[in-house]
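Let's sit down with a protein and look at its sequence and fold side by side. Go ahead whenever you are ready, and we will take it from there.
>
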Amino acid sequence: MNQYLFTPGPVALSPEVSLAQAAPMIGHRGKAFSELFTRIEDKLALLLKSEGRTVIFPSAGTGALECLAANFIGPGVDVLSISCGVFGDRFREIAALYGANITAVDVPLGEGVTPALAAEAVRANPRCAVLLLTQNETSTAVLNPIREIIAALPEENRPLALVDGVSSVGAMPCYPQAWGIDGLATASQKGLLTPPGLGLVWISERGWKAAAERKCPNYYFDLIRQKKTLCKNAPENPYTPPVSLYFALETALDAILSHGDPENWFALRARASRAFAAGLEAMGYELLVKEKEFRSPGLTAFLLPGGDTCAVSKALKAMGIDPAGGQAELKGKIIRMAHYGDFNWPEISLALGSLYAAMGDSRGRAGNFIAEAFGVWMEG
């Protein structure tokens, strides 16, 4: 039986990305690696529409988040954390381990962070030096409007904006320089369509200055140490990188950028998300995120009212469909299915048809779900 991976990371790989990892090994202190590294940086700059170096670590996305904490947060630093799910909470927990004074603002699960809420929270905490935000909250499938949130912040004594982009970069617009993000963390295994193992960090000029002034004690995640090797005539990593993953990442970036402006790729992802959501609702599933402007283009979270969501998940897995379940308070209550990569009409049909079959006796007004989804798909 074929297996179909619909988890929000790791995501299914294209054959080209899988094969790229089998390229002959090269030394990480030589010209060939430096050229590979530079090409990747240039392509990331196109994807992010931002200047400056991107630091790449052998790590999970959590490592990239810890890098931000290790360089900008220390004992006694006032940190404002706005969370709408598990991964916002995780970013907060990492900051707390570095001794920060945390002010927590929580949004109900399935709801997004509004610019007004963030601006009011900053005004109410004038001593806050760092603001923690999550762009795409994978545990609830919420997309937060980071650009609008940062634009709404008071200019006077504006905190450093550190953003978890682990599950957003590559799948939806994320332009840190234009949006005023000071530190952006992401990873390879979600929107960047690469195997797990690479954590990536982009820092603004304001962020680099703050990192140099704070001199937080750390070694492996020291951004200033990283910058010294990044700015060599032949850029490299200070420590041994997973070279095969760099080959895979470049191939994945080539695929994303082959659509021209990244906005073209992001539009395809949003189109697939809308069509999938329309099919789900026509079938009788209930989306966790009620307000459309907060729905993620990367994944959808849903439940079957009056039905057994756990039984649906079990039936899907028996058919070779691998979804993700809920986390923390939502464990056993929702199903999450990702639509990263080339999730287009064939994949939408496969996912919806499998979900219809998995409903069993709960099948209700499901007759037109394909027509509903196709109609949205054709709208573009």
Summary: The radius of gyration is 21 Å.
